[in-house]
Structures are given as C-alpha cells and as structure tokens.
Design goal:
451 residues; 2 domains; 7-stranded mixed β-sheet; 6-stranded mixed β-sheet
Length: 451
C-alpha cells in the first residue's frame, strides 16, 4: 500500500495537514481521484498552478495515486513563461486555484465520478513531479523527480533531523519549490502533521511559533531575518534554513535565543537537502553548511591549493538527469565553489557563477540578458546581483542603449516575472571586457558604485 493509505489505517485520527486527519485526507484524495479521471484519463502529465493551500496538497496527492506526472508551476511566472513551459512539456491539462485554468472548485463540483484502480505502492521509477529550473544558458531545464529519489530523501532526512510524534512542520515555502513540497512528503512518510499557510506572513508565523502550534520550520534567511528579533518564546525543535547565503549574525541570533537552527544545502536536482547539521551541536562549524546526509557523497573537483573547487554530489536523491538530456552517471556538478574540512563538513564559498538569489528565488542573469538582446535598441547589457537588506540580493542591469528606463521596464514586464526585474538600471557608454571581448561582470560593481 502507498504511504497515505498506510497512515490512514495506522493513524486514522491523527492530524495530517491543518484540520484534516490522515483518514480524512485519504478519503478526500480517493474521492478527488475519481472526479479527476475524466479530466486526465488520456494524460500522462498535467500541471498544478497554485499557491500553498489544502486544495493543492489534495490535488497533488490525488494525481500521485493516479500515477500521473505533475508539473508544479511557479505562480510568479508570466503568461509567456507558463505557455513556453507547458508547450515544451506537452502539457494540455492544468488545474489552478483560480479560474486561470481548470479551477479546483470546478472539479470538486463535478457530478461525474469514475471508479478507478489507485496505486498500491508508489513505483520507484515513476516520475512523481517535474520542477523547472532556469539554467545559466537562460533556457529552463526540467527536473524529473521519481519516487525512488523521494524514498531516499525522506529516509535520510528523518535520520538527520529525527522524528517526534508531536511534530508539526510549518509549510510557508511554496509547494512549487522542492523545499516546500518535501515538507509534505516527509510528514506523510513520518505520519506527522503539517500546517499549510498560503504565503509568508510575519504576524501569522510569529503567532504559530509563540503559541507552540508548530515545532518545525523550513525557511529562507530573508524570511527568518524579518522575524528573528520578535521571537520571544517558542517550542521549536528544528528550524531548517537554506536556499541562499545564510549570514553569520543571523545564525548567532538563533543560538542566543536557543533556536535550534539547522543549516542545509541542496537544490531541486538533489531533491532538496543533501547536506545538513544542527549548529547547536557544532558551533565551531558555524560557517559550514553541514555534513552529507546518509549515502550522500561530496567530491571537490579541481581543488586549489586551499582545497576549494567545484562541488560535486552523488546520492540516491540525485535526479537521473534533466528531461530530454543525458542521464547522469556518477557525480553531478553543482557549479558551486566550496571545500570539505578534515571532519567532512562542507563549506560553500560562492554560489553558482552569476546566479542572483533574491528572497529565496533563483534569478538567472543570462535569461534576462537574452530577452534584452532580442530588442534592436539594446546594444550591450549585463545583469548582476547587488546586496539588499530585505531580499539578500536584487538584480541590477548595466546597459548600453538608446532606450530610457521606462521603455526597458515596459519591454521586460511582459516577458519575465516581477521578481526578476532589475531594481536599478545603470547606463554606460561601454561595458568592460577582457581581451577576447567577454564582458567582465565582476568588474562592474567594483568600478561603478550603485546607490
């Protein structure tokens, strides 16, 4: 039997997510699958477009027991970006929280049901979910995650952070990100509770923490930084922090407040966390991102004299390969730069080259640059990250163009998500280049001060 059926039998009255018990979730998922059949009967792959909600969790689980691949669409994408992703992946059916596509409510209200055979156990080789991640080439790549990767992930994560029967994990990170989705799957596997909220709201999160309604939290540093000074009392057992650079002062505040911060490092391609540790236990390793989870191997490629080089990962949580591309054999190059110390702790010195991480979202400069270069009046451009107190980083555009700022923004706003828009535009007569003509991005912020 699959995880959901198992928990509904063994823990029927235990809360699963929000007010619903495991038994109630199982019954609703089973009923929903019967209603979904007429919408998806000829489809191998469908998409979900929604912010966090009980509904999107139910739809995801219903599609899983129907053994249908699910693309999780980022709700911050533009219509143009969504259309491109659906077309590339040949997806014709999309369910959404609103009426943008087939609404959840339409399915719930449908009178037509079909008795169908639901999955017993989840097939390890079955693709459960697809998440698109932009590449440094500017073209998104599709990451297919199979049940075998999720099996390995939940077991390794449980051994790393432990399990308590009273655990209640707050899902404030979106389910269309791997860090949000894995909260649901870990809790399903562990038979523990999840509290789903639609988005990050400081007052709501602080109340849940203060009331001891939740004891586990996954969060990105920019979010934690906005609430850390206001946390007075708590019953937190695990605070998993990752997704971007974690400032040392933030970690130190957590330690002073007796907040059990677990630093973590991973990506969509590795089914979220690959490296984790509780800073309480190793305060002398505060700059590290942790030790590899069970069966995760880290290798440093082309190390320099200090041992720093490209971080490579091999693990059962690693994807088989991007859709339509070569299968990965052996280690996967994260394109991050780091090193391992004598105790096996991993340190990341720099994020992947050029990637901007803003509020937990990855922004890939070349994607924006490619769009800009398609305009006849953009002669040269470079997008790089500038430090920002609220978001961690924000994109800045350096450009050689006859277009004014308004014209550039009007051009971009229709083509890329709002969070990808440059926060500042700096006009230059020419961008700095090396002898071969390559734009020297590293020189831009050094040579040109941006207020």
């Amino acid at each position: 039997m699959n995880w959901l059926e198992k928990q509904s039998i063994e823990k029927p009255d235990k809360k699963f997510f929000n007010s619903l018990t495991f038994k109630e979730v199982y019954e609703r998922v089973t009923d929903l699958a019967k209603r979904l059949y007429l919408y998806v009967k000829n489809q191998r792959r469908v998409a979900l477009y929604s912010n966090n909600s009980v509904d999107v969790a139910l739809f995801f689980l219903a599609l899983q027991v129907m053994q249908i691949e699910v693309l999780m669409l980022n709700t911050r994408l533009t219509d143009e970006e969504i259309t491109e992703q659906l077309k590339t992946l040949n997806i014709k059916v999309v369910f959404s929280q609103n009426k943008k596509f087939i609404s959840f409510q339409e399915v719930y209200q449908s009178d037509q049901k079909q008795d169908i055979k639901l999955a017993g156990e989840f097939n390890p080789e079955q693709i459960a979910v697809i998440m698109n991640t932009s590449a440094t080439t500017g073209k998104f790549k599709s990451v297919p995650l199979r049940w075998k990767q999720f099996y390995a992930h939940v077991e390794a994560s449980q051994k790393s952070v432990g399990i308590n029967e009273e655990d209640n994990w707050l899902m404030v990170l979106p389910m269309y990100h791997i860090s949000g989705l894995t909260i649901l799957l870990r809790s399903l596997y562990n038979g523990t509770a999840v509290t789903i909220v639609d988005k990050f709201n400081e007052e709501q999160v602080l109340k849940l923490i203060g009331d001891a309604a939740i004891n586990m939290l996954s969060i990105v540093p920019t979010m934690l930084n906005r609430i850390i000074d206001r946390i007075e009392r708590h019953n937190l057992r695990v605070v998993l922090v990752g997704g971007e650079f974690i400032p040392e002062p933030l970690v130190e505040k957590c330690l002073r407040k007796n907040i059990p911060i677990y630093k973590t490092y991973g990506m969509t391609e590795t089914t979220s966390q690959s490296v984790t540790f509780c800073v309480f236990n190793y305060p002398e390793k505060i700059d590290s991102v942790g030790v590899p989870l069970e069966e995760v191997r880290i290798s440093i490629k082309n190390p320099d004299e200090d041992g720093a080089g490209e971080v490579l990962i091999k693990s059962p949580m690693l994807m088989d390969g991007y859709l339509g591309m070569e299968t990965i054999s052996g280690f996967f190059n994260t394109e991050d730069i780091g090193y391992l110390d004598e105790d096996g702790f991993l340190y990341i010195l720099d994020r992947r080259e050029n990637i901007i991480i803003s509020g937990g979202e990855n922004i890939y400069p070349q994607e924006i640059e490619n769009i800009l270069y398609a305009h006849s009046e953009i002669f040269e451009c470079a997008v790089i990250g500038m430090e920002d107190k609220k978001w961690g980083q924000v994109p800045v555009l350096f450009v050689v163009s006859s277009l004014n700022e308004d014209a550039i923004y009007k051009y971009l706003v229709k083509k890329i998500a709002k969070y990808k828009l440059p926060q500042k535009i700096v006009y230059l007569d020419e961008l700095p280049k090396n002898p071969s003509g390559k734009i020297l991005k590293k020189d831009l912020l050094k040579r040109y001060y941006v207020d």
